[in-house]
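Appendix B. One record, verbatim.
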Amino acid sequence: MSALLALLDTALMLAAHGIPPLPLRAGKVPFGNCPDCAGNACGGRPNMKSAGPCRCPGVCHAWAAATTDTHILTSQPWASAWRRAAAVAYHPGGAGVTVVDLDDPTAVQWARETLPATLTVPTTRGEHWIYRGAMRSVNAVRPGVDIKSLMAYARWLGNGTGVTAPLPDLVRALAVKPSPARRAPQSLTAPLRGHWGECRHRTPTYLDRGIAMAEQRITEARSAVHATVYRTFLAVLSTHGRCGCLTDAHVARLFTAAQAKGESPRHCTDAWTNALTTLGL
């Protein structure tokens, strides 16, 4: 079997199991999944590792290029991409899982002593520990440890050994880094700028309307996008951050809107973490 067929067969197998794959070039760099993005013609990030900006109807770089649509996987431009691909990657968050990427033996030893046992996949330098459940992705949560889930991609390295365990709170906690010079928590008793009031006891309509307003505010920003993203994240968290009604899906919607305006995943994560710190969350 040719290398092309082997990679494509792997991608189609993953898609059949609900795991969105994408082709990787040498150096673990992904392709775009539409003609406008082929060869970075749309003006996206030079190495295509970050999603957007893009002229396409939907962001289609990096993790956002992953898909279970077999027509996309086997049609142009990906039919050509598979001929140049070096490996297969996938979007963990799109598959409902989280990858704890352990990059060296020290990190692996820490995981074995700290984290619940789960599905484990060997990598070149360490291991991937895969848990059932999605969360936001954060790099360098501790030395040699990255978290890859929503808005990230990971290389597919096989099925591994063990049984996938539920995502533990300990891993979720790693995504929130305390500031070394943390300010005193601010108590916000009124909605920020008067746009939202107190959370109405997890009423879905109220929360969805708030998230939609936040997406619109980011989308309509004409300047100072980074500041707008931070203020919007702060507003959402000030209203909904203390009651536990926000889910990873809501956060993903906000991150997607920000990245469509040109924010990088790193900037989105930093803005969210800074907003959490400001509010004492």
